[in-house]
Amino acid sequence: MSAESAQVSELPAGTTTVVRAEKAQKLISKLNLKRVEGITRVVMRRPKNILLVVNDPIVYKSSNNAYIVLGQVTVEDMNAQARAFAAAQNAAKDGDETEESKAEETAEAPAAEEKADEPEEAVDETGVDPKDIDLVMAQANVSRANAVKALKENDSDVVNAIMSLTM
Predict the structure, then answer these.
(1) Beta strand 58-61 with 50-55: parallel, antiparallel or unpaired?
(2) pTM for this prediction
(3) What angle is formed at CA 81 by the lines to CA 76 and CA 83, rounded to 5 degrees?
(4) Closest to 33 in 3D by CA, of 63, 70, 71, 1
(5) Where do the NAC-A/B domain residues begin and end (predicted)?
(6) How far apart are CA 53 and CA 45, in angstroms?
(7) Are residues 123 and 144 in contact, defined by beta-carbon separation less than 8 angstroms?
């Protein structure tokens, strides 16, 4: 009995289901499994780059090289980590721009503002619903003239007009 109580007291701190872990360790001790020391992390790969990670696990080995792992499982999505890493690299690239390109961008910005301040040309809105025009303007963030042009090119199909302006 003292060996069983010693094993139960070796549970990692912060174990949420201590009662289940105690029962599992008692059952494992009856199966004559050998405890494996020195393992600090267990990672199991699942399909679609999903990893199941157990930090500070309690690991047992059977005579036929099967392992039993006890501990808190966390899920890591490698795809999400790769996307975050790529975004960080792109941000670093953007931060390394030269002063010349920054100067060119600032020179182009006033020109764009001047275009926005110009009065819009009168656009022939016949055959196009004004509500559709307003919707395309709001969703695609474009001028009224561009919205009317896109609606006419797409036969008054609002979805395709928005897609043509934003893609």
Answers:
(1) unpaired
(2) 0.39
(3) 145
(4) 63
(5) 18-82
(6) 9
(7) yes
